[in-house]
# Entry
Amino acid sequence: MPASLAALLRERVRLTPEREAYRQYDPTAERWVSHTWADIGGGVTAWRRALHAEGLAPGERVAILVGNSVEHVCMDQAALALGLVPVPMHVIDNPDSLAYVLGDSGAALLCVDTAERWAALAPLQARFPQLGRVVHLSGPSAGGIACSLSEWLQRGARAEAPEHAHDHDEADGLAAIVYTSGTTGRPKGVMLSHANVLANVRAVLAALPVFEHDVFLSFLPLSHTLERTAGYYLPMAAGASVVYARSVSRLMEDLIAVRPTVLISVPRIYERAHVALLAAIEGSAIRRRLFDWTVRLGWRHFERTAASWRESVAPAAWPERTLHRALDARVGAPVRARFGGRVRAAVTGGAAIPPAVAHTFLALGVPLLQGYGMTESSPVVACNLPEDNDPASVGAPLPGVEVMLGEREELLVRGPNLMRGYWHRPEETERILDRDGWLHTGDQARLAHGRVYLSGRIKDIIVTSTGEKIAPVDLESAITADGLFEQAMVIGEARPYLAALVVLERAAWERQAERLGLEPRDPSSLTAEPAQSWALEHIGAAVRAWPAYARPRAVWLSLEPWTVSAGLLTPTLKLKRPAIEARLAAEIAALYRGH
# Structure
């Protein structure tokens, strides 16, 4: 494999110039547009020439605030070819957080999707004074340091071409500074080298081969390291095609239109599909019985065919096999068709997937593979495989990646994929990377049968005043697996019992409120005793597998979602627990009043 990511693209263009590289939707022409690897090579050359004309020195940072697209690839690859360092940013992040990243990284150039987005950032320029150029993909040139993409590329075409286009292929050079989500404070810039990322690409390919005929559907943001490595550089190394989804809201349409073979997602996408699936059979006892029967037989089939981690299971008798085939054709096949009908690997990472969701989709023949990683590890550490899939675990470590347990059963990781450190934060780097090269993940785990089983984040473990220890993330995943609840956060640190802060799914609440005789648009209805009892009953059913002390005994209900712009979620949609607790301090106090 080449020594750098820029060389990786050059090698791909050389090997398969006429194969499809990317496909994205043109809303103006209302059609999908395909780009070959040769097209991408030519586009990167034009972008590199324009970027070279800016006179930036190798090592300077180029911020990319653009959604998943060919344009994002062109800017990323143009920067890498010139020895510049891409800083990918999330397009849904709020201006305050974006301004922090621009200032902290010292970005000299910003590529942004629209002139309007730059207009929202421009008043904050005092916080990133080093920024000298803004290139926006759409909208007329605003003047000053901002210009349109077409104007910028025209300037580059008139400028002198770089004399040495491919001089910057150092494996140890920075390939990106990727800012972590920052659930408890300002995000940190993770420095990933070309060698880090390529080591992870090689390890993933060794564990889960990807082929030229594979088609990836890309919708996780390219500011997310999982998508960056596994959904961008990995298919480039394999020569596979990537199709950029139009939006998350149109994802189900795109799945059917694109028919991907590889899908990389976070649990929330599968959770929403699960909720829609259950809603489709609601109200019909016959459909529900057929569904449950199919899932029961499908799970037994999964245990026999794709679960070498279990003890041997007796082969199914012919009546069961016949019945399973018939039920699968009626129930399972239509579900797989919703994912396009030919997915061979549906990878989920970034957070734990609710067991009920994984159980259902695996039983229906959707090849769901849970993995684990961190931005600091480029990111993949472990992953399940189609032929060896234990959904209760995050799989076995990738080839070349070592794991062991440290104090408090903390998972430690070591390998060539580990970051070089945090940008301008040597003290924090030393706290997470020890002298022996082990990365302290902050996750509790157990190791068994060569696999990793996660218990929860050490810092998130709730210790009640009675001394019970509970990992809230698993509880929250179980609660939100119920389609009634859009978001949930479990609290109870140093308190006598757990409580749940819950955002209701609006349409489901309106239906339920009418059944309870409540006015759904009246805020006081959410605190009414019938609503509270109803919510606790459903939460109790969702977490019935947990011991009594781990079941919430009080609930606060809301219809207002927690958002990134409100500072309550990270750009990767993780809960900012301290921020939510601070925002709802009075409401939380009321849940424990008198105790």
